[in-house]
Write a structure and sequence with these properties.
The protein contains two helices and 20 strands. By secondary structure, the protein is mainly beta. It folds into two domains: 188 residues, no CATH class; 46 residues, no CATH class.
């Protein structure tokens, strides 16, 4: 009787403390983790960092960060598509600041779930909005897209440094470009191409400053940059989104900045 009672207690304790892996969502650290509430998409962070040089992709490619929906905070609609809209232009970290002066005409190309190529260069973006993946029956998406860097000769290559792109997530019906939910602010991805850790983290910190310095309102399409320097003078600038990830300057007011 005592042995049977002991086995029963051990079984009960095991059943209380053991939770099968399938019953809890496992989110990967470093992934972009969006969730949806109403018609708005929220994300776990605004700046993500990664390194070119995946073992499977070679020195000039990566499939990180992944995109992994946090269904516990808010699932998407099954059967819909999770998508991304390229925003702005490619920036390069020259060791002291982010700049559109790209050393060797580099561009970063994303290959989406439909095998479409979306390109970021110093002059802007090329390609339509990309597809990340179809929303599963539980409202989840977990995909890893391909990011590659090319030089001006269209060869996989990249000058050592850090590179920055931005994209905005949205959800659409399958085979449709019409948004049914959208993230109001862009996501920043910073790529390390051959920098030491400390140097790369300086670039990431500066990218954070750039993100905090700007506000994008999706309803109006207006991007406000709180502080931008031009010809030794600082301005607050407003830009209007005109489509295809491009913006047009509509207002610039000189401001005083205390360094």
């Amino acid at each position: 009787m005592f042995n049977k009672l002991k086995i029963l207690l051990i079984t009960l304790m095991f059943s209380l403390h053991f939770v099968p892996a399938s019953s809890a969502q496992e989110l990967h650290a470093g992934d972009i983790q969006p969730w949806r509430i109403g018609a708005e998409i929220f994300v776990n962070n605004t700046v993500f960092e990664t390194d070119f040089g995946d073992p499977s992709g070679g020195s000039f490619a990566t499939d990180e960060p992944g995109i992994d929906v946090n269904i516990e905070k808010g699932a998407f609609t099954p059967g819909n598509w999770l998508r991304f809209q390229p925003v702005g232009q490619l920036l390069y970290w020259n060791g002291t600041q982010w700049s559109t002066a790209i050393p060797n005409g580099e561009r970063i190309e994303i290959t989406d779930a439909l095998n479409n190529a979306i390109s970021f260069s110093a002059t802007g973006t090329a390609g339509t909005a990309g597809v990340i993946g179809e929303v599963g029956s539980d409202g989840s998406v977990h995909e890893h897209l391909s990011f590659k860097i090319f030089d001006v000769s269209n060869t996989p290559n990249g000058t050592p440094g850090a590179y920055r792109i931005q994209l905005r997530l949205f959800e659409s019906n399958a085979n449709s470009d019409t948004s049914v939910s959208i993230a109001t602010s862009p996501i920043t991805i910073v790529f390390n191409r051959g920098l030491e850790h400390e140097s790369f983290e300086l670039a990431v910190a500066a990218a954070n400053d750039l993100t905090e310095n700007s506000v994008f309102v999706a309803d109006t399409g207006i991007l406000t940059i709180q502080r931008v320097k031009a010809l030794e003078t600082y301005y607050q600038a407003k830009l209007q989104h005109i489509g295809d990830g491009k913006f047009q300057l509509i207002e610039a007011n000189e401001i005083t900045v205390t360094e």
